[in-house]
């Protein structure tokens, strides 16, 4: 079957987006891996499928698949690209869109400057909700990796995140520690691993080793998680500019029980058709 797709990115975190409203899209994990393959496929960090809503009060549903073929619940950069996609494709002309995801409903707003703001929901801190296999909640946890003790903060943004503080982002051990912590048994569903350097009270630098995709040029939910963890550890305060290798996101969070707001760009690169 030949499927129409759109290649998009949010700060270099790239996506192959399928319109599952006007065409029938059903992908196996093997299909996803082939689409995401940068040599034998189109190439992307995640595959997104836009579908009709499952709730009465939503406009759409969108589904997210990592490059390794696994379906996951949350993708911040993908959410902004989803908003841009439904507008560009003539599927929705609203300025505010409600979308069903496996992490609950998200609200997205097209701003007049072309950026998109996403209400990313209320972060979850309890270990069982992340999930993190540690009995008591704390702002900082310890783990031994490669024979050394590392401390990290953890939070769910609808997907599991660990955030480690580093002094120099350019020399952060992302490639070495990322895969070890992503698959560490304390994270029963694996985790996205962020490495954050605090620049000042309103600015951090961040690199993220993403579950199921490896290091990406940006991770929207990772930027939210690093902001939440930094605020909880009293290192930073809202609003926060998060500088990622692919560019900057703007994150606002007013504290426990309140949602996180993420603002950034979404770009369409090209359209095509793939035979599966
Ligand atoms: N790139 C995304 C996150 C995609 C999902 C993640 N790798 C996971 O497995 O939870 C973002 O921008 O948030």
Task: Write up what this structure looks like.
The protein has helices at about 30-35, 75-90, 175-180, 220-230, and strands at about 1-10, 15-20, 45-50, 60-65, 70, 95-100, 105-110, 115-120, 140-145, 150-155, 160-165, 190-200, 205-210, 215, 240-245, 245-255, 260-265, 265-275. The model has no long low-confidence stretch (mean pLDDT about 95). The protein is built from four helices and 18 strands. Helix content is about 15%, strand content about 40%. The protein is globular. The termini are close together. It has an 18-stranded mixed sheet that branches. The longest helix is centred in the first third of the chain and has 13 residues, at about 75-90. The ligand N[C@@H](CCC[C@H](N)C(=O)O)C(=O)O binds next to strand 4, helix 2 and helix 4. Keywords: Amino-acid biosynthesis, Cytoplasm, Isomerase, Lysine biosynthesis. It is an enzyme of class 5 (isomerase). Pathway: Amino-acid biosynthesis; L-lysine biosynthesis via DAP pathway; DL-2,6-diaminopimelate from LL-2,6-diaminopimelate: step 1/1.
Query: What is the helix tally?
Result: 4
Strand content: 35-45%
Structural class estimated from helices and strands: alpha+beta
Terminal residue distance: 6 Å
For the largest beta-sheet, the strand count, sense and barrel status come to: 18 strands, mixed
Bound molecules: the ligand N[C@@H](CCC[C@H](N)C(=O)O)C(=O)O
Query: Which stretches are low in confidence, meaning pLDDT under 50 for 5 or more residues running?
Result: none
Using the CA coordinates, give the radius of gyration. Answer: 18 Å
EC number: 5.1.1.7
Binding site for substrate: 13, 46, 66, 76-77, 159, 192, 210-211, 220-221
Active site: 75, 219
Subunit structure: Homodimer.
């Amino acid at each position: 079957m030949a499927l129409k797709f759109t290649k998009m990115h949010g700060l270099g975190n790239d996506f192959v987006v399928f319109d599952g409203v006007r065409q029938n899209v059903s992908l196996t994990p093997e299909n996803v891996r082939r689409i995401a393959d940068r040599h034998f496929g189109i190439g992307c960090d995640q595959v997104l499928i836009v579908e009709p809503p499952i709730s009465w009060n939503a406009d759409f549903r969108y589904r997210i698949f990592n490059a390794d073929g696994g379906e996951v619940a949350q993708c911040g950069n993908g959410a902004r690209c989803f908003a841009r996609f439904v507008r560009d494709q003539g599927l929705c002309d609203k300025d505010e869109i409600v979308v069903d995801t496996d992490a609950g409903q998200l609200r997205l707003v097209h701003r007049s400057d072309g950026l998109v703001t996403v209400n990313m929901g209320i972060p979850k801190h309890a270990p069982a909700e992340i999930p993190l296999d540690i009995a008591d909640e704390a702002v900082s946890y310890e783990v031994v990796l490669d024979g050394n003790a590392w401390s990290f903060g953890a939070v769910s943004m609808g997907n599991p995140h660990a955030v480690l503080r580093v002094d120099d982002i350019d020399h952060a051990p992302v490639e070495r520690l990322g895969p070890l912590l992503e698959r560490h048994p304390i994270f029963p569903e694996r985790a996205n691993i962020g490495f954050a350097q605090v620049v000042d009270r309103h600015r951090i630098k961040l690199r993220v080793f993403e579950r199921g995709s490896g290091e990406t040029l940006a991770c929207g939910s990772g930027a939210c998680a690093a902001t939440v963890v930094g605020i909880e550890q009293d290192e930073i305060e809202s609003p926060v500019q998060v500088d990622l290798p692919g560019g900057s996101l703007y994150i606002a969070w007013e504290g426990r029980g309140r949602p996180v707001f993420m603002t950034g760009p979404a770009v369409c690169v090209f359209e095509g058709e793939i035979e599966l």
